[in-house]
Design goal:
This protein has about 400 residues and is an alpha/beta fold. The chain has 16 helices and 13 strands.
């Protein structure tokens, strides 16, 4: 008798994101789909614009399609997502047309699930799922509150989260609390896990010329101006310290970037501050860093660069909002400072720089914490659990 293979066919999942720029959510998506068990899941990524993410996904062997969405919709910033803009007739028609395009593709590839990765893709992905009669899971990576979105838009997204998707994933417990999803639908927290890479022993801290780095997209809510004011205070005590700002503006925040250069001049710290722009190899850069700072003025939805710093064995000084208390153990893997308080951030930085042995111990503890909680296999395990709830074997 012929042998019948009873192994279930892998489930085809279509991932949606509106942008191909390399933001934190897009890096997390790249890592996540690359780590999936291909014997169980076949990922396809559909992006609404072209950019660096396309090449990286394809290089990782991920089927990637680009179906352009109108530039006005792709480039709309979060603070422009008010009800008035969402209800423009032309924009509504564009969203609907695009949702039908996605639905046709989903049906053509016989997808079992749609997984959205950004707020804009939540909108058209949720509608596409209804049209194609395919379950949709929202992966929310932004705080859904009035500090981060216009109040009306935040309320609308919270309502949609309870009605549109079949299930909801958040990148932290903090993000999930702002979303308030339906208790009747599957929910999960899936942290943005680190890829496995060789660990390098943390080098002894050099108290004579420490380097403090703030890494991440240049945007006012990320608090680079707070970091620079803290740097000015640290330099009064350690005049040889150097401060790196690593990252670039992504969504039209170029005026804010210019203001940072002016602030350096006003504070008299230009010679101690370097703007390094976007860096593709953060682990390599971190080898020369003494301490990683994070200065968000609003609650951080997750804090991926903080995890990067901890994985590299570096002590961390971060603000105490959003998900960062889930990541940083205050006093053990780093120190937390109040949001928007440059003096408190400066004191925390000095506390660590003035005690190199404690800084090294914090770095080692942070690396252990990443290994225990924030690796990509932890993310995949959490993801597969909620996939299992939505994709019941037939």
């Amino acid at each position: 008798m012929p042998i019948i293979d009873s192994t279930p066919a892998p489930k085809r999942i279509v991932y949606l994101d509106h942008t191909a720029k390399m933001g934190g959510g897009e890096i997390a998506l790249l890592n996540l789909v690359g780590a999936l068990d291909r014997s169980r899941y076949l990922p396809t990524v559909v992006l609404a614009s072209d950019g660096p993410l396309v090449e990286k996904l394809r290089a990782a062997g991920i089927t990637t399609e680009v179906f352009p969405l109108g530039k006005e919709l792709v480039d709309t910033q979060k603070d422009g997502l008010g009800v008035r803009s969402l209800l423009k007739v032309t924009q509504v028609l564009d969203w609907v047309r695009y949702a039908f395009l996605i639905a046709r593709y989903v049906r053509r590839v016989k997808a079992d699930l749609i997984h959205t990765n950004s707020l804009k893709s939540d909108i058209y992905g949720g509608l596409a799922g209804r049209i194609a009669r395919v379950p949709v899971i929202w992966h929310v990576r932004d705080n859904i509150d009035s500090n981060y979105l216009p109040a009306a838009a935040a309320a609308a997204f919270r309502f949609l989260a309870r009605t549109a998707p079949s299930g909801v994933i958040a990148n932290s417990h903090s993000t999930l609390r702002t979303l308030s999803p339906s208790a009747k639908k599957p929910t999960a927290v899936v942290y943005s896990g680190m890829l496995d890479r060789p660990l390098v022993e943390a080098a002894p801290m050099d108290p004579s010329s420490p380097v403090v780095a703030l890494i991440g997209r240049i945007a006012e809510w990320k608090g680079q101006h707070i970091f620079l004011r803290a740097a000015a205070e640290v330099l009064k005590t350690i005049p040889s310290a150097r401060f790196w700002i690593v990252g670039a503006p992504l969504f039209g925040e170029f005026e804010y970037e210019k203001s940072l250069y002016s602030l350096c001049e006003d504070l008299g710290i230009t010679s101690n501050v370097e703007f390094l722009g976007f860096q593709g190899d953060i682990p390599k850069l971190l080898k020369d860093v003494t301490l990683v700072a994070h200065a968000s003025c609003l609650g951080e939805p997750f804090g991926q660069v903080v995890v990067e710093g901890m994985a590299a064995g570096k002590p961390v000084v971060a603000t105490d909002g959003g998900a960062l208390p889930e990541v940083v153990v205050d006093g053990e893997t780093g120190l937390l400072a109040p949001m928007g308080d440059a003096s408190a951030m400066a004191r925390a930085i000095l506390t660590i720089l003035n005690d190199p042995a404690r800084g090294v111990a914090m770095g080692q503890a942070g690396r252990r914490r990443v290994q225990d909680r924030f690796m990509i296999h932890h993310s995949v395990a959490s993801l597969e659990k909620i996939y299992g709830e939505l994709l019941i074997e037939k």
